[in-house]
Design brief:
The structure holds two protein chains of two kinds. Chain A is of the alpha+beta class. Chain A is built from 22 helices and 19 strands. Chain A is elongated and about 140 Å long. Chain B is mostly helical. Chain B folds into two domains: 248 residues, no CATH class; 122 residues. Chain B has a two-stranded antiparallel ribbon with strand order 1-2. In chain B, helix 2 packs antiparallel against helix 3. The radius of gyration of chain B is 26 Å and the shape is globular. Classes of the chains: A alpha+beta, B mainly alpha. Chains A and B meet through helix 1 and helix 2 of A and helix 9, helix 16, helix 17, helix 18 and helix 19 of B.
């Protein structure tokens, strides 16, 4: 009865069964051990990685006064795939937006041209930088809108409405930054200008991650491993600036109604004590939802309030150039401290004198009286000291030498080792430049470039460079790169001017006399020896720029200042009082000359700026 | 009368051990799959694991009762049981509520029951009974027809209930038929047909030239011609004729290519023409040389042509849209990870993320967070894969393998044909469920919703498999009683 001939078929069947199970084990081996994409798939399925934004570092002034801090803000993010049965009207009402805006935002988010990182699986920012009161309504009803999330953020808050240019602002990261730095994700914020940009990596801190478990329907089921794998955000580091908040505030007050800038530096350290640029704006208007609107307004303002005039505006220094000219000419042997030149007053040639004084003049009184013919003669005898030579080669070599020594005062180039992000380089015209302009190497001579002797013509400086040149004089031959952060490491950035120490005292003396008996007599501070130099720079935009540079006290200077008031006229009238008041504030921490203060503040050179 | 042997000694305790191990692992997996962070107890009867625990206990009770019944009864009452099951299936069609498109559940108060699970056992009994009847011969037509009827009635009734998956289980009996003498060619042809079907369907979306034939069909015809060549060249050693076949094929291909430059010519028809021409050629050879060796080849070729031609049509029309979709997903013809492909994609993610050691019991994120649909029923193996990794999954497969081998051994040691046929039926049914279910979860079989024996949640299936197994154990225990 039993069919034994077919018994070997049991083996066949056993082999078939074993083979199938073996194939399955091999398949398990491939997907569980060899391939890793399933692991990743599981993570992106189950883990909702919520970014925890760190608080940005705070910013203090040199006296520990808090300048910039944070306040809480909120973003509304959405995950497109998780949005279900959205009651659009209720949502718009809760957020206090209109439906058109809602539709527009959704379209923008989905538009891959505008939003390159779009994915329907990942959180996308719907609205950013909402304040507490903006989200109060929706916070309670958030559960009604699956797919929408509230993310905590911080916004910048400013203790003073000042120093906007120095501090800079933060804004959404640019596309180029997104691509170059993997730290940033679409919608993140980063420093856009000023110190916020320079010290972005210090201030930003490290983002943290909170890992939440999310089920197939997108519901949050709690923390993964009770938060063991979470990474806490690391707060950004605080910054202490070299800025003196009170001095800065005074500077901005003094500049009211005027266009121009003030830069104050502590000569011994290169620390910038104040950096004023007017017209300015309240930095808090570039925070939050109003940022883009206000920003556009600033961009379109004809007086260019976004420009940091202290570092970006370039002016002819005019007579403020003379102290350095005196130093370089002495060093190159064009003059000595005893050299005298004649001055024919207004009838001098080729350059007139605008002041009234005796003739001949010595170097000392030339500085004191700002004598133009003297400096022309000094410059001429410096660059022509060895004659011209074939094809003017000797002259040009000496001119090169002059340019090089001028630049050693920190002129004509950017301070590349500084933390000031926005800078212009200024201009000390090179030999090449003149060769090109006059189309031949021998087509120009000292007389051709005579304007340089009195700081006019092609030479351009920024107020920062002007102020720094004073720091060189204070230090008798060197400067430390001007910077905004209070830190010792910058002290190593010493740059030596190519002028020997022995040539400085006479310039000191001349500049002191400017206050004692010269052009700035009216701006003296009783009982304080100050050094300074007025400048009145001609320009093509109307009235002359009023310039003043100087430092105080004369012995062991604590502060060097450059003041530029655009289109205001004589340096002694506008810039010198501002200098004087700044010095008083910094050295005495108090202003006694309230009358001078009030009259200076009341001076208006640009009624539009006053109106703003 | 037969000798009374204590069932305690006669019972195959090894099988019972495997059974208990699998049921226990299944229960743990169900607890893992339906665990919902709220830390419910495994004995919470409102939860699935708790309910499964009841099913397991009642299953043990049913198994125990089946062991108490005299083994002869199963043989005697097999037709009665069969007819009862058929009636139950018929009643179900009219009474059952529509659940997810299928009408296969009978409800008695809180208990739901799927008669299709019983039908497998009943059909197995009926087949065993018929095939063990006196002077039965598998190859005789008069015996084949009743066998067909026994299979066809429950099969079609289950199809009517819209439970295609359960109906397909009847295919499993092919293995048993093979053991009982069915020509092995049938299995080979079946495998070949599946292979040809996959080739035609998979490459049907790739045109050879726009509107001028599909790659799938040309490949199928290529396979047929290649088979002819290999057969003639290596088996019948008509080498000259085999080479002539190759030359003829190349010539036809070349001519049709040239014609196609100026005129419209569908390459599918060229291929059919070439294949039929080759058949005629073999007919001529057959007649000329009287080899009598080519008739099978000709039949095979023409059958293949017919099958390939109808495969695409059947695929698009005879199957339901969701079935077509599932096969397309399996063959990577479509890749809709959120639609038809979602289940399998998620199940692969769950298993794949388990790695070698797994994430640990109750630590699977994919299953806990309900990413895999049906994860405590048809996709229960995901939980094993995710939480216990490669070693755990392999262990489960190994236990199944041990059980299957044991069942084959039991079937083979039976002294009467009834028990042996029934034994093979049980082994085949378990094997089929295992192959389809785990193959589906691993993404190498189409999605066919049938449970994993002893693992998947559900009273009906657990009871069904328990009954199947314990009847065999009872029959096996009785083999010693028959010894004189």
């Amino acid at each position: 009865m039993i069919n034994d001939t077919l018994q070997n078929r049991k083996t066949v069947i056993a082999i078939i069964m074993s083979a199938v199970i073996l194939v399955y084990i091999l398949r398990l081996f491939t997907i569980q051990i060899i391939e890793s994409r399933y692991k990743e798939g599981a993570d992106s399925n189950a883990f909702l990685k919520k970014t925890q934004f760190p608080p940005r570092g705070l910013i203090y002034d040199r006296n520990h006064t808090l300048l910039v801090y944070n306040k809480p803000a909120y973003d509304i993010a959405l995950i497109m795939r998780e949005i279900r049965d959205l009651d659009t009207l209720a949502f718009c009402k809760a957020l206090n937006i209109d439906k058109a805006f809602f539709i527009l935002r959704i379209a923008e988010i989905k538009d891959r041209n505008k939003n390159t990182g779009y994915s329907s699986y990942t959180p996308q920012l719907f609205m950013t930088q909402l304040r507490n009161e903006d989200i109060a309504t929706i916070q309670q009803s958030m559960y009604k809108f699956p797919g929408f999330y509230i993310q905590n953020r911080t916004l910048r808050e400013y203790a003073f409405p000042n120093a906007a240019h120095v501090l800079g602002s933060i804004g959404e990261v640019s596309r180029s930054k997104l691509e170059s730095d993997p730290y940033y994700k679409q919608g993140d914020y980063a420093g856009r200008d000023g110190l916020e940009k320079t010290y972005e990596n210090v201030l930003r801190g490290e983002k943290g991650v909170e890992i939440l478990l999310r089920d197939a329907k997108g519901r949050i089921k709690g923390k993964y491993e009770n938060g063991k794998e979470d990474i806490a955000p690391k707060a950004g580091n605080n910054l202490m600036l070299s800025l003196d908040a009170q001095l800065q505030v005074l500077g901005e007050t003094l500049m009211a109604g005027k266009v121009g800038s003030i830069v104050a530096i502590e000569p011994s350290t290169g620390e910038i004590l104040a950096m004023v640029s007017n017209p300015s704006f309240n930095p808090s208007i570039l925070v939050g939802r109003q940022r883009s609107k206000n920003y556009m307004q600033l961009v379109n303002d004809p007086t260019k309030p976004l420009m940091n005039r202290a570092t970006q505006a370039q002016y002819s220094p005019g007579s403020a150039f003379k102290p350095i000219q005196a130093l370089v000419c002495q060093q190159m042997g064009g003059i000595s401290q005893n050299t005298i030149f004649s001055c024919n007053g207004p009838s001098s040639s080729p350059i007139k004198c605008t002041h009234h004084h005796g003739s001949p003049v010595s170097l000392l009184s030339a500085i004191e009286q700002s004598c133009n013919p003297y400096f022309w003669s000094a410059f001429k005898s410096t660059v022509e000291k060895d004659g011209y030579g074939a094809k003017n080669a000797i002259f040009r070599k000496n001119y090169d030498d002059w340019v090089d020594r001028m630049k050693s005062f920190g002129l004509g180039e950017k301070y590349t080792d500084s933390d000031i992000y926005e800078q212009s380089r200024g201009y000390i015209p090179s030999q090449k430049f003149y060769n090109k302009v006059y189309r031949a190497e021998n087509a120009w001579r000292a007389i051709t470039i005579r304007s340089l002797s009195i700081g006019q013509g092609e030479v351009l400086v920024t107020p920062l460079q002007l102020c720094n040149s004073m720091a060189v004089i204070c230090n008798e031959g060197y400067y430390i790169t001007p910077h905004l952060l209070r830190c010792d490491s910058m002290r190593k950035h010493i740059h030596r001017a190519k002028v020997d120490k022995k040539y400085f005292p006479i310039v000191y003396e001349g500049m002191a006399r400017v206050f004692e008996s010269g052009t700035a007599r009216a701006s003296q501070i009783p009982g304080l020896q100050m050094c300074g130099k007025t400048g009145t720079a001609e320009n093509s935009h109307g009235k002359d720029h009023s310039i003043f540079v100087g430092f105080a006290p004369r012995n062991n200077p604590k502060i060097a200042i450059a003041v530029v008031v655009e289109n205001a006229g004589f340096g002694s009238l506008y810039a010198a009082p501002i200098f004087s008041l700044m010095v008083e504030q910094y050295l005495y921490r108090k202003i006694k000359r309230t009358e001078l203060l009030n009259s200076t503040v009341a001076k208006v050179t640009n009624s539009y700026v006053k109106e703003r | 009368m037969s000798k009374n042997v204590s069932i305690k000694y006669a019972l195959d305790w090894t099988t019972i051990f495997f059974y208990v191990v699998l049921v226990f692992m299944g229960w743990i997996s169900i607890y893992g799959a339906s665990y919902d962070f709220d830390q419910a107890s495994i004995f919470d009867f409102n939860q699935r694991a708790g309910k499964q625990f009841i099913w397991i206990l009642t299953g043990f009770a049913i198994g125990g009762m089946l062991l108490l019944i005299d083994a002869k009864m199963y043989s005697i009452f097999s037709y009665v049981i069969y007819i009862g099951a058929i009636l139950l299936l018929i009643i179900t069609i009219f009474v059952a509520k529509d659940i997810k498109g299928s009408r296969s559940w009978l409800e008695f108060g809180p208990i739901r029951f799927q008669p299709a699970e019983l039908a497998k056992m009943a059909t197995a009994l009926a087949l065993s009974k018929y095939m063990s009847s006196y002077n039965y011969k598998l190859k005789a037509w008069k015996d084949l027809i009743p066998l067909g009827v026994i299979l066809f009635i429950p099969f079609s009734l289950i199809i009517l209930q819209n439970e295609t998956g359960s109906a397909l289980v009847f295919v499993a009996f092919l293995l048993m038929f093979y053991r009982e003498g069915m020509n092995g060619i049938v299995l080979l042809i079946g495998t070949y047909a599946v292979f040809l079907f996959i080739i035609v369907i998979r490459f049907s979306i790739i045109p050879v030239q726009v509107d001028r034939g599909t790659l799938g069909f040309l490949l199928a015809m290529g396979i047929v011609l290649l088979t002819q060549f290999v057969y003639a060249f290596f088996f019948t050693k008509n080498r000259k004729e085999a080479l002539f076949l190759v030359i003829g094929t190349v010539v036809i291909a070349a001519i049709s290519y040239v014609i196609n430059i100026w005129f419209y010519l569908n390459y599918n028809y060229v291929a059919v023409f070439a294949t039929i021409a080759s058949c005629l050629y073999w007919v001529v050879i057959e007649i000329m040389f009287r080899f009598k060796r080519y008739w099978f080849l000709i039949l095979f070729s023409l059958g293949s042509v017919l099958f390939s031609f109808s495969a695409e049509y059947l695929f698009e029309t005879a199957l339901q849209p969701h079935q077509t979709q599932r096969i397309k997903e399996l063959l990577s013809m479509e890749n809709d990870l959120n639609g038809a492909g979602y289940n399998v994609h998620q199940s692969k993610i769950a298993i794949g993320s388990g790695g070698f050691w797994g994430k640990g019991f109750l630590n699977g994120t994919q299953t806990k967070l309900k990413y895999v649909p049906e994860q405590d029923t048809d996709f229960i193996f995901c939980t094993v894969g995710e939480e216990h990794g490669f070693w755990g999954s392999t262990l489960v497969l190994f236990v199944y393998w041990l059980l299957l081998m044991r069942l084959l051994k039991i079937a083979e040691r039976q002294r009467d044909q009834f028990s042996r046929v029934y034994g093979y039926c049980v082994a085949s049914i378990f094997f089929f469920h295992l192959t389809i279910n785990i193959g589906m979860v691993l993404g190498i079989m189409p999605v066919i919703g049938i449970p994993l024996p002893f693992f998947s949640y559900g009273g009906s299936s657990l009871w069904g498999f328990t009954i199947l197994l314990f009847i065999l154990l009872r029959l096996d225990a009785a083999r010693l009683e028959r010894m004189r």
